[in-house]
Amino acid sequence: MKAKTYAILGFVAPLLFWITYVIMANLRQDYSIMKKAVSELGSLDAPNMWWWNIFGYMIPGLFIALFSIGLYKNIAQDKAGRLPLYGLVLSGVFMMISGIFPGDFEQKTSTTMILHSVGSFGSYLCFLLAAFSYPKLLKADPFWKNTIWPGLIITWLTILFGNWPFVFPEFPAVGQRIVFMLYFLWIIYYAVQLLKKSLQNKPLNFHKI
Q1: What Å distances lie between residue 183 and 27, 140, 167, 180, 199, CA to CA?
Q2: 157/168 Cα distance (integer angstroms)
Q3: Which residues contact residue 59 at a Cβ distance below 8 angstroms, ignoring those fewer than 6 apart?
Q4: Which of 52, 142, 143, 173 has the fewest CB atoms lying closer than 10 Å?
Q5: Do residues 159 and 131 lie in contact, with contact meaning Cβ atoms separated by under 8 Å?
Q6: Quick check: 189 and 147 in contact, CB under 8 A?
Q7: Chain-centroid distance, C-alpha 19
């Protein structure tokens, strides 16, 4: 695939996630965006469970995994480390796993809940692995070097807001939404940069007069 196609996948993944989230959340009268986890839209007892898990987790996760391949291919130089690639690919794969295994919030020790949790936490931890290892690759290219600090700031903010439930226990889910927004903002930011880079490298067509 071309760099532009990979960039589009980077745009579509967050868009699909949030469109699905807004629709699913508004279809449930009992769902509180302030107190309930995002995953509860796809829990075992949730109406339209698979709609959320497929369009909220599985497909966006697949698109992120594919996007990460294109991002790495357009950044990495010869003999570059593959840690950023593996981290972001696995972030997408673990997001898919969290959709394949719906959460059972009534039986938190059940197999499906454990696997769902592994998918959720694994996706975020692998994202951190990618986000903190990418700067080493980015600094080798003048274009990508300028993207290091914005990417790191977004990453550190995910960690900061990840502590939200400890500070505001009465509204624990708000922090999770912010972390999701920042996670996808990182994806969108680098999708934009990948698109810019692809347009920068596109040869100009001159027509004879």
Answers
A1: 25, 24, 20, 5, 25
A2: 16
A3: 13, 16
A4: 142
A5: no
A6: yes
A7: 15
- Say how far apart CA 33 and CA 31 lie, in whole Å: 6
Tens-place pLDDT, residues 61-77: 999 999 999 999 999 88
pTM for the structure as a whole? 0.92
Query: Quick check: 78 and 43 in contact, CB under 8 A?
Result: no
Cα of 138 vs its chain's centroid, Å: 19
Per-residue pLDDT band at 202 (split at 50, 70, 90): low
Six-digit token string for 199: 């347009």
DSSP letters spanning the chain: --HHHHHHHHHHHHHHHHHHHHHHHHH-TT--TTTS-GGGGGSTTSTTHHHHIIIIIIHHHHHHHHHHHHHHHTT--TT--SHHHHHHHHHHHHHHHHHHS---SS-TTSHHHHHHHHHHHHHHHHHHHHHHHHHHHHTTSHHHHTTHHHHHHHHHHHHHHTTHHHH-TTSHHHHHHHHHHHHHHHHHHHHHHHHHHHHHSSPPP----
Return the structure tokens found at 12. 């579509």
In angstroms, rounded to a whole number, what is the distance separating the alpha carbons of residues 7 and 191?
A: 5
Extract the tokens encoding 81.
């480390």
Q: Tokens for 34?
A: 């302030």
